[in-house]
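Late entry, evening session. Most of the bench is empty. Finally got around to the prediction I had been postponing all week. Sequence below, unchanged from the version circulated by S.P.
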Amino acid sequence: MTPTMLAALASDDFPDVRVLGVGGEAVSAALVDRWAPGRQMRNGYGPTEATDIATVGNLRPGEPVTIGAAVHGFTLLVLDGRLNPVPVGVPGELYLTGPGLARGYHRRFGLTAERFVANPCGAPGDRMYRTGDVVAWTADLQLRYHGRTDSQVKIRGHRIELDEINAVLLKHPAVGQAVTVGTATPTGEPALVSYVVPSTHSNPPDTERLVGFVSEFLPRHMVPAAIVAVAGIPVTPTGKLDERRLPAATFESRTPYRAPSTRTEVVVAAAFARSLERQQVGVHDDFFALGGNSLSAIAMVGSIGEQLGRRVQLQWLFADPTPMALARRIDMSDPVQDDAALNVVLPIRRTGSAAPLFCIHPIIGLSWCYRPLVQHLPEDRPIYGIQVPGTDDSEPPRSIEATAARYVTEIRRIQPDGPYHLLGWSLGGVLAHAMAVLIEEQGGQVAGLVMLDSFATPPVSAGGESVHAGDLLAGLGFDGAVLEQLGAMSADSLTDVLAVIEDLPHGIERHQVQRLVDFAEHNSALLQEHSPGIYTGDLLFITADGDSPGSTAAADSWLSHVKGEISTLAIPFTHWQMCSPAALRLTGPSIARHLGRRSDVILVGGEH
């Protein structure tokens, strides 16, 4: 039986069923929790090219849903894009080998050659079938299904697990069935739409209230752009979800319309409407919730700046994505401060009576990516970014310790005495740690240290290598959506990156980007020679769990360099997404608590 068919039934109606088999579609944890108690529930997986069933897994309530292990006649390979085996926990594409495979497609030689390929792990002439399914090994060598390579749903660079959204919807008492699909808005941007069936004896659920309900449990990029109430979920004759028969969704603003009132609001709202291809946009409408993304935002922000005769930072839109909030940010910004966007000290929030938070730049040398922190830290906490002095003619430092000494001098000009708060992402984390060590050697106090996915020693030698495009874009404050646009381009080519970013953010020229990249490569080489000292205080370490789920390698690398307590937090984002608005929404409250638990100080740092 397919999961879609099973979801429409009530488990209490089949008390005598002791063994239950499902297959044909991905199985949700919510469905297992409903049907598995008191039964043996088995999940069969396999394409037609593998005689329909290639693996079987046992499903139990409260445990991860797997597709199990291979049945007799098949061998399973989980490979990366270069056909190399992936480690446990790392997603890769599933390939099937063995005598149970079909020979190919009748008289379709091109398709046969595309899907039935040479087996690099087998004997000469052995073949394997490329399933197109993304899976990962569990610790006990079962397979977890993560979706399709050819139909994955990605929203602003984040791969979405649709069953996680369905599971949250099913927590609502008025929802009996839920299915979420990926679609496109009228502007062509990817979007999520959920279809819900009322629970037994319930009236159709209020979809607007459902949006608020799921927003309490899910990050913004996983909240459906639309929720549609339907009488039933359409299925094919074989019992699978029939997406073609689902009604089309209407993408409308969820906030009452309010017209812009100031000149700046009028300009910003009109720019939103043009970019989103809408007749009108109210001052409370969220640019990203209406289908905007990082790439469309670049040209829009440039247009706003040209009309107003002002420099408008792209990062302002990430932090304040409504016309009213962005207009207020533009009107309150200091043009002189805008010109200082490349200075060593970047004021992100000047005001407040608490001790400042100093955020140290990632590998690219800019601290623009930390601007969204203003939404998650108390208003009385000033925030300053520390940036590489790499846009003038100054000589680069000769060691990580020398860079840390320069930055300690800078923060003492703002805050002469401690305790200090330091936070760093990647290279910034290494620099923040070096600054903390130096401050303690000078007799000062560091109240706390926060690191975002930093390694004490680079896991792979990077000396002399070019800086990756992801480092450049993330350091400029872009989220993962821009990285998706790079596709098969050379990620290490600055020319390719600048071709994607046709209109660079205001305040930075292409020759300055090149100089920042040169300094980044210099700092990458310095990391190879750096030996961290010992910091006596506590550390809050936030891990990019989206890269290697369950790995503690990054946090463990600091065990011999931190004497205090190391608290860890793993978040489902990649290294490049650690300072995206969505990631900082998730980590911001933990950072705020860490800053507030003692007398005032944190440093934020960056990469590699």
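Two things to note before I forget:
Residues 510-529 form the longest helix (20 residues).
The chain is about 30% helix and 20% strand.
Will write this up properly tomorrow.
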